[in-house]
């Protein structure tokens, strides 16, 4: 439970309870990255933490580790705390049973999901059944600019699309999608376990230097394409800023590297979490395809029933609200699936930190119990935060759409343009803040089972107690993960292109109706691929397809790593004693790195006799 005592008395702490008080006095040139505090380290004996009373808003946390294995399969759900605005509040060791959080938002989510499924199985099929190509053809013929050749091209395209979709998508999925997914997963897992984890310091350093190299390349291209004194001055200015940033972030390399290495060790110990994340992401992708099917069929149905005359849109006002609802549903459902992954990762990583015995193998019980908790107790909190993000993004999309529509109309309203730019900037800023805020909120949801608002209050407390270096350290780790994603995408793309050539050499391509495309049969067969059919440049299509699959698969796996890093930082700040009990070697590395990077952020630990002198209280 978290509080802000004004006067903290020193007292002995039993070995079964890790009571950690973080204190830090900010300085002009140094601050701690998440909490302005150095977690307590070295808790083999009862300790007393002596505070600097001049510290500003010291962050205090308590974790009762003696009960961490009493829950289902050792999950740290019962390791609880609560934020208190009362500065004189005291700690309480009372355990709470897990409860369902933010239930109304979970109910609202299931209601909208049922509505979309109902539309997909009832209304959308009716919409597709109402499609009348003869009517569409008649409407096209009404256009005076439409020629007979245009109508012929339309008929040819419809026939070709129907034939193509009946054959080639199944081949692409069978012969290309599954193998490239397996290649991307294996390659990402190999890079993470054999390169990044043992060489985390080198990888962080390499990516930090890579920022400057990329900036030099971009600025050099700008100067070459537009040689002028202004371009040269701009390039020098940008490179100076990048160089200054790298110099400021250089000292944080050890801190970022050790966080990345320890987090990867925790994920590797429970590597089945990658499979869980990929499975949830696959559900998300299938939902996107189903959503497109629903929205197209529903819009067709509304258009045919309320706007039978395709030449007018006077009676089609219902399409707008329907599309708005479906658009919010798409973003909300996608956000919920992504955040389910983050909350599950937080629960697994928290169990690894606090109760290693239940999270030490590939398919540990911590994975399945954390996944269960994400779908039950914390599901309402996930739906709450996801709904906020979905609404903000919908507003941003509509603002950007209105801005583009005004630009197409060549509207010269200067005041409107300025107002639109300000609104767009504010919405994007709020979206970025909410996205960053949610990352930490879901860590608390996964670790302690808080509601969304309770987690948010704790995040605000962390914002008050941390320095700007958090953004730097997060950027350093994110750069390594981004570089890994790009590398896996490139390698998977090359493998996909080679696989397409191999399959094409072993299988004979099909010959479509050559006359329908106006080609000779011999030419048609030469230009036809077994996987992509008559589409041109099949090897490069395979390259792009493989690159996309590799980036998607690796991005999902890297999101697991990113969530593990965030969870490790919170666990390290909340209960370093419990972390040391389970992982003494890693705790020593983190403590040594922390104190070397932030030498002024110290918590002094002393061992005192049971009877403390009066002046020490």
TrEMBL record:
User: Which region ranges are annotated with the description Disordered?
Assistant: 1-24
What keywords sit in the KW lines?
Membrane, Transmembrane, Transmembrane helix
Question: InterPro entries, alphabetically?
Answer: Choline_transptr-like (IPR007603)
Q: What is the superkingdom listed in this entry's lineage?
A: Eukaryota
Where is the protein localized? Cell membrane; Membrane
Q: Which topology term describes how it sits in the membrane?
A: Multi-pass membrane protein
GO CC, sorted alphabetically, is: plasma membrane
Which ranges does the record mark as transmembrane?
103-124, 172-196, 203-224, 230-250, 271-294, 377-399, 476-499, 540-561
| Predominant place of localization | membrane
Q: Which GO terms describe its molecular function?
A: transmembrane transporter activity
Pfam family membership, one: Choline_transpo
What this protein is reported to do is described as:
Choline transporter.
Protein family (similarity comment): Belongs to the CTL (choline transporter-like) family.
The name on file for this protein is Choline transporter-like protein
